[in-house]
Each structure stands twice: as C-alpha cells, then as structure tokens.
C-alpha cells in the first residue's frame, strides 16, 4: 500500500529539508574550490528592473574567451558535474567577471504532483544541494519534460506544480540574506493547456512559483502538428502568437525571457519543391532526425552558401539548400538580420531579456582567420542592444512609425502657422485703407500754395 505523508509528516520532512539545506549552504560556503575564494561569493542583484542576457553552455568550452560585456548570467547544463574541475571552473569564471551563475535541472515529476510525498521532498533537497555546491544565483528548472508527459495539463496540475516550485524557492533561499536566488522556468513556446478547459491559466506559476519564464526555442517544432516540413527554429509569427497566449494566461512580458538559438538545423528532404522541404514521416513528424549545426560549423563548412542564403519573410529567418549523396538538404539558421529582429521584438514588447542557446555554438575549432575568429563572431551577434535599451533612450531606428508620425504632425503645425502668416500679408496688400469721400475732386496741393509767386 503506498505511503502518503500526512500534515505532521510533511512539516517534519520540511524541517529536515530546510535544516539539510542550511548545512549544505554552510559547507559549500566554507569549501570554495576556485583559485580565488571571492569567486564563490554570489553576485548581488544590481537592479531588478534591468534586462537580462542569459547565455547557456552545454559543453566544456573555455568560457573565459567569451565576450562578457553584455552577458548578465551564465547557465550550464544539468549534465555538468560538480566534481569535474573543468566544468566547475565555469562558475569561477562567471563570478570573477562579476556575473551571475546558474544551472538547469529537469522536472522529473509529472501529473498532479503530490507536494507532500517523499519523492517531492527528495527532488527539492537535490536541487538545494546542487545550488549550494555551485554557489548559484539562478536555478533554471526545465518544465518541458513535465509538459511533454502531461500535454493537456489542467489548472489543478499547475497549482500543484506552483506549490512545488514555491517550496523549492523557499528551500534555496533559506538562510540567504545577501542575495536573492532566482527560479527561472523553461517553458514551451505556447501555454500547454487543454483546449477544452477555459480556466487553464499560469497565474499561480507566475506569482508563486517562477520568477522568470524562458521560452525554449527548440519547442516550436515539438509541440505543433502542422505539415511535416523543414522550417525555421523560431517561426516569427508563431513567436508573437505564443507570447500573446502567455499574456492571456497571466504571465506578463516583464517576466519572459526569449530563448534564441545560435545554431541551425540540417534537414534531409524526402522531396524539395518550390523551396518546400518535405520530411520523411509516418504518423508523426520526426524532427529528432534533423542534424544540429553550430554557427562555427555553418561558417566553416558552408561559408559560400551561408553568405548567399535566401531569406524567408514569413519565418523571418535565412536558409539554403544543398545536395549530398543524391539527397536534397535544407538548412535553417539565424544570421545578424534575423537575430536583430528578435532582439528588437524583445525591446518593443518589454520582455525581460534573451536567453542565448548556446554560447558554445560560436566557438570555432578552425585556425584563426580561416573565416571568422571567436571574438569577431561574438561582436557580430551584438546582443548588447538588449542591455542598452534598458539603460538608454530607445534607438531611433526602433520607432520608424513614431518618427514619421512626429514629423508629419510637426509639418502640419508648421504649415498651419506659415499659412496664417502668408494669408495676413496677402490681405494687407489687397485690402487698402478707404479714402475720404470726394478726395479725387480736390485739387492738388501744388495748385493752392499761398506763397506761389504766380498768384
């Protein structure tokens, strides 16, 4: 017979959890494995209103070579091992740059979660222990596995999930007075709600569970049933629609971080006609068969195709076709133009920021100057626009419509004033002062001068 913890057992378990969390924090604080112990100290939140640029890492790359000017937070994969010296060093580097550090953790629980079960308590304890070990300021909880197992989730599911996330937040923040640990929830591109349930909403998640919501760019193909064809990783029209749906489910834009890919995908076409690449499929479309290609790979292996790629205006993304071993391929990726449009959308909608997936994609394994070097690629992406937008007045090129409207109104007012002045001047010339009656009958003054010697 399954064991269900009662209220008393829940309070006892929660007390044990908080005590163990506190001991983990004390132990981690006194056992810094960085060369400089200062690098184990969490970074203060400078301004809760400032924009965020999360950069994710899923490999062992030298993050110290990255361009840190516009990075606010480094997030590492759930697979990173605390005991791996090279992987642990990423935290030391982030803190040495005075940036926040975080890690991802998958939500392995599903359905209507029993928030008082031993399984739930153990999951929370694991998250807290990892947060203390990594001296992390951000815990990014990947909710995609949860929603994938429970596609038609209900309000009750969300309420239980919110309680779990709130308890997790309380656990990781317990004993922390100098900084606030953020819980960032990684979510699909649209709310995973049952279409027949009108009351489905995320209000509990946004108020109690998650501080921020990161839209995963990989979810745009996983959760929709349209025609099986190659397409952009983030179709622009679906992006705007998904954000509006989250707004309708009580998640404000100021809590949303847009995940953007710095990699592309190579699709093998079963048929390529009129630029439409139909994929091999049975009852389902197997997007897992596509091949991920980093920007470094694209630039090195397809430099000519990359530079002369076509641009799909509907998806707002570049692509190119090529043939290999008698098979047609179509590659979709991001370039400066498509990324800039997404950065501008973040600015215009007032989103919290962007989440770059992945910083490793810009790491070139080729000799320098063969195509681009890493620093050139980082500056080429130029996502500093997100941070600049939060600290400086909006750039003029963000508001073409506003500028045109302002000029039009100014011209209208100026034209009105000038028209009034010109009309007044014209009337003064055309309307003369009336003469006295019979003035024309009077002799000229020269004819009646008393001193005239001819009189």
UniProtKB/TrEMBL annotation:
This is GH18 domain-containing protein. It comes from the Eukaryota. It comes from Lymnaea stagnalis. GO terms for biological process: oligosaccharide catabolic process. The chain crosses the membrane at residues 404-427. The keyword Transcription does not apply. Residues 155-355 form the GH18 domain. Residues 1-28 form the signal peptide. InterPro entries: Chitinase_insertion_sf, GH, GH18_Domain-Containing, Glyco_hydro18_cat. PANTHER family: DI-N-ACETYLCHITOBIASE. Residues 435-455 are annotated as: Disordered. One of its GO terms (molecular function) is hydrolase activity, acting on glycosyl bonds. Keywords: Glycosidase, Hydrolase, Membrane, Signal, Transmembrane, Transmembrane helix. Residues 435-445 have a biased composition (Basic and acidic residues). Gene3D superfamilies: 3.10.50.10, Glycosidases.
């Amino acid at each position: 017979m399954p064991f269900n913890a009662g209220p008393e057992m829940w309070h006892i378990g929660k007390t044990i959890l908080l005590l163990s969390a506190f001991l983990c924090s004390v132990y981690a604080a006194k056992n810094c494995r960085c060369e400089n112990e200062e690098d184990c100290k969490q970074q203060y939140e400078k301004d809760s209103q400032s924009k965020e640029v999360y950069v994710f890492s899923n490999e062992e790359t030298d993050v110290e070579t990255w361009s840190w000017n516009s990075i606010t937070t480094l997030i590492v994969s759930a697979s990173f091992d605390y005991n791996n010296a090279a992987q642990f060093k990423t935290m030391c580097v982030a803190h040495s740059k005075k940036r926040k550090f975080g890690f991802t953790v998958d939500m392995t629980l599903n359905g209507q979660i029993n928030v008082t079960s031993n399984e739930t308590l153990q999951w929370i304890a694991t998250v807290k222990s990892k947060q203390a070990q990594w001296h992390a300021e951000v815990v990014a909880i990947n909710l995609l596995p949860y929603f994938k197992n429970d596609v038609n989730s209900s309000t009750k599911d969300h309420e239980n999930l919110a309680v779990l996330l709130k308890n997790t937040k309380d656990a990781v923040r317990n004993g922390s007075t100098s900084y606030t640990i953020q819980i960032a929830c990684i979510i699909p591109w649209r709310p995973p709600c049952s279409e027949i349930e009108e009351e489905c909403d995320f209000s509990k998640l946004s108020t109690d569970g998650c501080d921020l919501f990161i839209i995963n760019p990989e979810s745009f193909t996983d959760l929709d049933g349209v025609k099986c064809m190659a397409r952009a990783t983030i179709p622009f029209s679906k992006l705007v629609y998904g954000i509006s749906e989250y707004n309708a489910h009580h998640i404000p834009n100021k809590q949303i971080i847009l995940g953007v890919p710095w990699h592309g995908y190579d699709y093998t076409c079963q048929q390529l006609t009129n630029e439409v690449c139909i994929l091999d499929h049975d009852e389902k479309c197997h997007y897992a068969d596509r091949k991920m290609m980093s920007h470094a790979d694209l630039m090195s292996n397809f430099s000519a195709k990359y530079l002369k790629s076509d641009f799909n205006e509907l998806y707002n993304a570049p692509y190119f076709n090529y043939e290999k071993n008698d098979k047609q391929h179509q590659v979709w990726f991001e370039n400066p133009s498509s990324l800039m449009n997404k950065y501008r959308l973040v600015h215009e909608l007032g989103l919290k920021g962007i989440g770059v997936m992945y910083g490793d994609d810009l790491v070139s394994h080729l000799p320098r100057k063969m195509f681009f070097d890493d620093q050139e690629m980082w500056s080429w992406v130029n996502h500093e626009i997100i941070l600049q937008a939060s600290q400086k007045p909006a750039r003029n090129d963000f508001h073409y419509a506003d500028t045109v409207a302002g000029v039009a109104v100014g011209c209208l007012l100026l034209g009105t004033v000038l028209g009034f002045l010109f009309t007044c001047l014209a009337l003064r010339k055309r309307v003369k002062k009336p003469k006295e009656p019979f003035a024309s009958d009077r002799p000229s003054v020269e004819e009646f001068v008393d001193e005239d010697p001819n009189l």
